[in-house]
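Note to self: the last two entries modelled the partners one at a time, which told us nothing about the interface. This time every component goes in together.
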Amino acid sequence: ATSRRGINRKRWPPSLRTMVEAADLLVRTLGECRIDSPLPGLLDRHGTTEHYVDEADRVLFDDTLAMVGERTGKPPSFEPGGPRRQIFFDPAKIRVGIVTCGGLCPGLNDVIRGLVLELTSHYGVSRIVGFRNGYRGLVARHGHDILELTPAGVQHINEHGGTILGTSRGNQDPVEIVDCLDHLGVNILFVIGGDGSMRGAQRIAQEITTRERRIAVVGVPKTIDNDIPWIGHSFGFQTAFGKATESIRAAHIEATAQPGGVGLVRLMGRQSGFIACYAALANNDADYVLIPEVPVDLDGFLPHLRRRVRERGHALVVVAEGAGQEYLAADGADASGNRLLGDFGIYLRGRVLSDFATAGQEINLKYIDPSYVIRSVPANPYDSVYCLRLAQAAVHAAMAGRTEMVVGSWRNRFVHVPIPLAVASRNQVDPGGDLWMSVLEATGQPTSFSIPDRAAA
Ligand code: ATP
Ligand code: MG
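The predicted structure of the combined assembly is written out below.
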């Protein structure tokens, strides 16, 4: 479990932050930046300073006093994103590739568009290709064509969900992928994808290093579940939970319209329940939120739900797909090797129905699963802005020769996060943290269903 850079995943919990060391935040570069950036430096309000990133500037990893006090020496810090005065690649000479991998997420097209516009309009890069259908498009054997990307070609793509490049899962050989990059003369590869794609990008970057090539691999992390750590929040997340609130609203209306009304909304969240938490907080209709991070005790939950329906006439349950796995025997994996989760939403529906039946209590249950509707919508304006700015930061990083890194946002600054760090742990809802506390306060659900609820039975 120890990566090349000495990041040992087994060491992570319980206090992830104290485990990160300055060395974990070092970003690899391909070489010295010797070329003047074609970007015009912006003047500040005094008309003096240019808005290039000062290479000595850093963004504090943790700004708590305790954290800074505990450390000896310099506290860990991120390299900030943004344009450099000197860049590594000569824009006139390079070719750039873009690929999208993994599941759909709002904002993919915004990121593609942002990369193309920044590369062309600001740096003057004219040769940009899009690979089709994920990493598969970089493996010659599969015979996918490549798409020439131009500003005109990407002009309105942000108005649509999905990805114009297509995507895929399934393992591809990094050797064949680097063969393809070599063959096409690609100098920068942008990967827009999730944790799996970033592990793939890491292997591609390693293969590039082995061959001593100067090819930059820069990621824009995509995760609708918001489960990639150290990037602030992921693009598309706000759109996703916003869309999810529509289902919660609908389920609530259904539940209140009938005697014994129970709404059960199943949302995404394989390992992390952020969408369920935020969607539930957005309109305060949910009475229960079940997430992967907090064990579900059905022996306590079911009587609690029955009592709630008896007393208030209806109830609304929001359940993240990865919750309650302790009740399901999940086995198998998808094409990318991701563990398949049992469907707790469906399981829970069965348990709720039979529990009410056994107790002789009336129930009208409506089950809503909006997952695919949520994944495929276009980004909302907030996410569109965020996607564009992440794309700009990714281009600045790559042009300055950074590699094996992803862009993120930390303390309202764009930062460079080394891929080994981004894939070494998972961003999860902290059951002892303030987000989960807000959910408990907003829903009124107990901290634990295991504590016997005497009034229930
Ligand atoms: P999502 O958030 O939708 O799961 P993802 O990027 O994690 O996105 P995956 O299907 O897991 O989606 O992976 C996308 C691509 O990355 C696939 O082509 C897969 O083969 C590759 N990949 C996944 N895990 C690894 C790994 N450990 N090493 C190399 N490549 C990987
Ligand atoms: Mg994944």
